[in-house]
Amino acid sequence: MDSKILIVDDDAHLRETLRDLLEMEGYKVFEAASGSDAMKMVVSDFFHVILMDFNLTDKTGIEVIKDIRKLNTDSQILMMTAHASLDTAVKAIQESVYDFLIKPVDFNYLRRAIKKAEEKLYLEQENKRLIDMLKHNNEELDRLNGMKSKFMSMASHDLSNSLMTLQISFEMLAATINPNDDQKKKMDFISASITQISRLIGDLVDWASIEQGKFRLEKNYFEMDKMVEEMVVGPRGRAMQKNIEIATGTAPGLKMVCADKRRIGQVLLNLLENAIRHTQRGGKITVFVSPLEDNVCVSVTDNGEGIDPEVLPKLGQSFYQPAGGKSPHGRLGLGLSISKEIVQSHDGRIIVESEGVGKGSSFKFVIPFAKEPPPPDAQKGAQQAGGEQH
Q1: Do the beta carbons of residue 244 and residue 282 sit within 8 Å?
Q2: pLDDT (tens digit, 0 to 9) for every residue of the chain, 390 residues total?
Q3: Is the Cβ–Cβ distance between 254 and 289 less than 8 Å?
Q4: Are strands 257-259 and 284-292 parallel, antiparallel or unpaired?
């Protein structure tokens, strides 16, 4: 579409000359002899470029431009004057005038200035269109994300209630019968499946809490190496079913941490379950606790399947499942993303290392030692907990 140009000048001869020259360039040209005439035309039509004289019969060009800008900030305005001054130029720039031309204007220069003004206008319009589209898309994403979080929260709540009913009913039924070997095998399978579903729902509950900003921590003082010994008992029993050894080790120089013990234990269990799932029968998993500057580092290292280098950067993304559908970090692809959130909430980080497929992997989490010494009652409680464990 041809650009429309409005010439605002009280010199009829100049207007006619510029009009003839610009129409030869393919522009649609309109004329206004005064500020009031210009405003009447601007109100009813859009002009891509406006050539504005400074001295008009009823107003100055600056005053007219101010009125135009109240209606339209897009048109590119070029000011022309035979009496240039620094003050006039500054005022013109303040009113978003694209260029300031001194009469008599060289037409070749004017033609180039108009071309550049057109380009600027089209770029601004395209930027505005893209920004509006981006704003609309962001609003739609926010709406969909809100719906997703709400759905997950409601679904996990309803599933939890249904699962509780199922588990209670199963336990009541199991207490009333004396199963034979085949029935006991099937009952064990049902019990394991209920436990698995419970873990899946737990992941969804945690993920929904994170998405809604409702994830909370309850910090207390404890010793990381003792917590690890407590937490490996269950996974060690499951690992024995696959003839997998779980060994633990501790380096000297550890201090107490102030963290959410339940959540940190959840991270460790996620990493251990992941290691058991991806270690072949007869393999080995090592859990090692060591100091790292002002932090404690807990590593879970296995000699199992390993991780493809292309997969490593994607670990930690919610619901990520690699090709083949075998998630390396959680039953729904949420395990590591939840663990990452927990660790980051403690000002820590998760590190994943693997030399490649078939070469095992190491999942580490690092959190700071307690910055302040624990109060006497907290230290006493931690020592008692350690004593009870032994």
Answers
A1: yes
A2: 578 999 999 999 999 999 999 999 999 999 999 999 999 999 999 999 999 998 899 988 889 999 998 998 899 999 888 766 666 666 666 667 878 787 888 899 999 999 999 999 999 889 999 999 999 998 888 887 777 767 766 776 777 788 888 888 888 988 888 989 898 888 888 887 887 787 777 777 777 677 666 678 889 999 999 999 999 998 998 899 899 999 999 999 999 999 999 899 989 998 998 899 889 999 999 999 999 999 999 999 999 988 888 777 667 555 455 554 444 434 445 778 888 888 998 999 999 898 888 889 999 999 999 988 877 765 555 555 444 443
A3: yes
A4: unpaired
3-class secondary structure, 56: coil
**How far is 16 from 18, CA to CA, in rounded Å?**
6
The CA–CA distances, whole Å, from 337 to 210, 273, 332, 356, 367 equal 10, 15, 10, 21, 16
End-to-end CA distance of the chain: 85
> Are the C-beta atoms of residues 32 and 8 closer than 8 Å to each other?
yes
CB 62 within 8 A of CB 92: yes
CA distances from 174 to 29, 161, 164, 184 (A): 91, 20, 15, 9
Give strand ranges (E) for the chain. Answer: 4-8, 28-32, 49-53, 76-81, 97-102, 220-222, 245-250, 257-259, 284-292, 295-302, 349-353, 361-368
Burial string for 146-155 (b: 16+ CB within 10 Å, else e) reads eeebeebbee
Q: Which of 207, 169, 211 is nearest to 191 (CA)?
A: 169
Q: Which amino acid is at 36?
A: S
Taking the CA atoms of residue 336, residue 342, residue 344 and residue 350 in that order, the dihedral angle to the nearest 10 degrees is -40
